[in-house]
Amino acid sequence: MSETVHLALIGCGGMMGSHVEHGYQELWNKGIRTFRIVGCCDMDEDRARKMAAKVAAFQGEEPKICTDYRHVLDAPGVDAVDISVVHSEHHRVAVPLLQAGKHVTIEKPLAITMRAGRQIIEAAEKSGVVLQVAENYRRAPEMRAIRWAIRKGYLGRLRLLFWIDASERLWHWGWRDDVEAAGGGWSMDGGVHFADLFRFFIGEVEELYAVSRAYQPVRYRKPETLEDPVHATVEDTTLAVLKFENGVTGQWGSSQAAPGAGFSSRVIYGEHGSINLHEGLTTRNRKMSMEQLVQEYMASLSTEERERLFPKGITQPVATELKEFVDAVLAGGSIETDGWEGYRSEAVTLALYESSLLGAPVRLKDIEDLKIESYQERFNRLHAVV
Questions:
Q1: Domain annotation covers residue 350
Q2: In a 3-state reduction of DSSP, which class is residue 386?
Q3: Are residues 121 and 242 part of one domain?
Q4: How far apart are CA 342 and CA 99, in angstroms?
Q5: pLDDT digits (tens, 9 = 90+) for 229-269
């Protein structure tokens, strides 16, 4: 391979727009130009064309456009692809591309079900190509600082996790409100971010029990006036108790059907104190804002570590995520959020749905080993997951 990765973007919606603006363009502007975007693909030709124009604005050359990802399969000038499509299409798009020898970075969640996720991972391993799950939250300086503080022993032995968010969402969110396309609501789409952070901060979840409900199934295309209603088929509320392998107990709750006063609390407790994601560190003998904690963490890094985690001073998580992917394609480096890492985080989110459906606690190992698929069975059938 040359010293440049030739990339195609597949799915030119909102999240890919973030990849371009906050990722590729940020890298390009900082002088990191080890990639070139040569293709933009979307079922909507106009969206592909607009994305290509955005790319051309910073890299100079406008990528070719297409409306079918299969045009990328045999394209000799494409080394790697960045996939951001509807959850139900992840395996349908990723597996053929991986089998064709293309390196892949794919938006979280890895797939619509665990079985579909395994298909993607197995295709990557068989072809010997790079597979990255685009998980950006953990890469933020604040999140890395929290993990560092925990491992440095500031909290002592960990005890408790409280992660609760409550608000009301009345606006319609396109395909994300369709369970057959999304696989689940915010507990899956946003929840996989949080599950990844739990594992990043604390460790593996052993077992969880969850209750999931749809209290407010109507959304509105005109939420300001409550006009043009749309029926949403995803849940809007999930509450869960998590048991971690290391003895930590967690309470995880999310609701988008909570009118009135909004509420958000994200706190990790240990024997010596706590870290509040909104406020910072509080122990018996010290108090630090999140800004101070990040400063102390940054000061602790060696020059090599700082450049690896935040190349050229870049702290935008999407940019550092994509830099890691491009580097791995060029030089065979490791991927922090590879297929298996994304698989394990998704197991936590799908365990929520499995537990709620069964009305009983579920073990994460049973989710990962495909021993429990009651909730997922419908999607496996619907989306031809063997």
A1: no
A2: coil
A3: no
A4: 19
A5: 999 999 999 999 999 999 999 999 999 999 999 999 999 99
